[in-house]
Design brief:
Elements lengths: L2 H12 L2 E2 H9 L9 H9 L3 E3 L6 E4 L28 H13 L1 H16 L6 H15 L12 H9 L4 H6 L4 H8 L7 H15 L10 H10 L5 H9 L3 H14 L7 H13 L1
Antiparallel strand pairs: 1-3, 2-3
Helix pairs in contact: 4-14, 5-6, 5-10, 6-7, 6-10, 9-10, 11-14
């Protein structure tokens, strides 16, 4: 999805947002605020989006009554889907995961990833790794192509290949691998992509369930399901490359909920994504 479409989608969902809030909604952090300026100004100049004339301008879709839009960040949650009837149980996450696997898009793409990983399991050849990066990026919308000024796939593939004992460590569920991939060249935080790259290898190739994925949907909705976590705390773990703390948190919450089904972390991710996509 292009930046313009993502901006429109966010404004449709949340109403009114600053440029930095839009950047955080798209990329998971505010470091990319300048990166969306051109797309945002295109929408403004083409009368799709307008803005308030204040020092810290807020943007909203033209045709949306401004009086009906929340003007406080803490009120933005009012536009979220009501999750009060979402029951997280062994039965519910099993059922939702089955529905996800049966969708035309996810089901076939997940099978494609599985076939690819079984055919090219190792992370030793940078060309092979580049192919796997591209496949996971495209099917999971991690938008690596939008960060070419900070890192390209060839550079990232060499970074992954250079990680000591990477295949053994992913097979064993070593959480530190996520941080090592996420830190990449020190110019960009690839936390979300790294969690997915490790998760797919660990689950689809080795049949394990050691890694919890982090993406924008989980970052936005986990605090609505659990009162002991905030979006800010998740962002702090991401900014500090503290994947193990995030992964341990998911494990603990699944334990508290009594979730014991096979591949529970992957199915929990399916549940949150399917309900709130």
């Amino acid at each position: 999805m292009s930046q313009k479409k993502m901006i429109i989608s966010l404004l449709q969902t949340r109403g009114i947002m600053t440029q930095s809030e839009l950047a955080e909604g798209i990329y998971g952090d505010k470091l990319h605020t300048p990166n969306i300026y051109s797309a945002l100004m295109f929408l403004v100049n083409n009368s799709v989006v307008t803005r308030t004339e204040t020092h810290s301008a807020k943007y909203f879709l033209i045709g949306t009554p401004i009086l009906e839009i929340p003007n406080k960040r803490n009120d933005m949650g009012k536009s979220y889907r009501d999750i009060s009837n979402d029951i997280i149980s062994n039965e519910s996450i099993d059922e939702i995961s089955r529905l996800v696997e049966e969708t035309d898009s996810y089901g076939s793409e997940n099978q494609l990833i599985t076939r690819c990983l079984h055919r090219f399991p190792d992370n030793k050849d940078s060309d092979v790794v580049a192919m796997k990066i591209g496949l996971i990026d495209i099917t999971n919308s991690t938008h690596l192509s939008q960060h070419k000024s900070l890192i390209n796939i060839d550079e990232l593939s060499h970074i992954i290949v250079a990680i000591p004992d990477i295949d053994t460590r992913i097979a064993d569920g070593d959480p530190e691998i996520v941080n090592e991939i996420a830190q990449s060249n020190g110019r960009i935080n690839l936390f979300s992509f790294a969690s997915k790259y490790c998760c797919y290898h660990n689950r689809n190739l080795y049949g394990r369930d050691d890694y919890s994925i982090l993406d924008t949907v989980l970052k936005n909705y986990l605090p609505r399901y659990f009162s002991d976590i905030t979006r800010g705390q998740i962002q702090k773990w991401q900014n500090g490359f503290e994947y193990e703390k995030y992964n341990d948190y998911i494990t603990r919450k699944l334990d508290e909920l009594g979730i014991t089904v096979l591949n529970r972390k992957r199915k929990f991710d399916h549940f949150i994504w399917y309900k709130n996509r």
